[in-house]
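Sanity check

After download, print the first record. It should look like this:
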Amino acid sequence: MHLTVDNFDYPLPPELIAQAPLPVRSASRLLVVGAELADRHFGDLPELIRPGDLLVFNDSRVLHARLHGVKASGGAVEVLLERALGPQQALAQIRASKSPRPGSVLRLADAFEVTVEGRAGEFYLLAFPPGADLIELVERHGKLPLPPYIQRVAVDADENRYQTVFARAPGSVAAPTAGLHFDQDVLDALAARGACRAWLTLHVGAGTFQPVRVSDLAEHKMHRERYLIPRATVEAIAATRAAGGQVIAVGTTSLRALEAAAREADGLRAGEGETDIFITPGFRFRVADALVTNFHLPRSTLLMLVSAFAGMGAIRRAYAHAIECGYRFFSYGDAMFVTRATFPDDHAV
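Expected structure tokens:
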């Protein structure tokens, strides 16, 4: 079936875009998407999980990836890291009145200097000071980046709430937002239920917010993101499968990492790498049986991914229901629990 970006559009009232988190993480709503739709609360998630099921979490931590500075001319610049390429090299977005040229030096946070080495598509290649630790510099001098659809600057409360309670591996510039709903009470209830946990790391890049600029999806080029899947996670997935349990990806980031690793090898293997996997309807999923996810932007690659997972018709019905019922959308919004489509060729538009 020929798909265009218009197949993934929907009208969203602006007032449904969550601008701040709820006081309690697990107080968000949960739309269960299966054969029928069911309105629940996120604290009910353990009731949907069977003993022996495995939840796979992304433990990436959001960096203080937004930095303000000046060019040698004195002009202001704003830098948003896309991802680290090494201890002293990174890709970044740069906002300035005039695009900096290769060789330009930028002084950031009035604390250190970086050199613009060139362009890589929409991003700039930046060299950090020799011998410096890029992550340490950014964490000390940068600011927490909030998504572009949150119309306010980050405040102290975001330092905690725009991180998952299990974040530990610094490297993302956007939160793996499905994980934001989990608090210790939900984690404890899942353990009491007999559910198991496993971990992976996928560092979310700023490219996740980039719009799809082509109509024909076959022409879209995905951004790259780095992931790490430990051997213990691969073994836990195999054991869950052998025992007849479900593998539940917590977030589209976990799902992308698992399916990318399974695609690159003969079955899922441990290891690290980079992926530009673009999942659209018709994709053959190999690892995950269910997905915990937030509501995603119209015309976005993440909406295409969940439509591939659950079926386009199911997701269209779910989103229409969520809008009618006033669910909160995007990073600080509500969540869905989605089971994989029994018939993956359900692409009704």
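If your output differs, re-run the checksum step. Summary of this record's structure: The chain has two domains: 5-62+157-339, 66-141.
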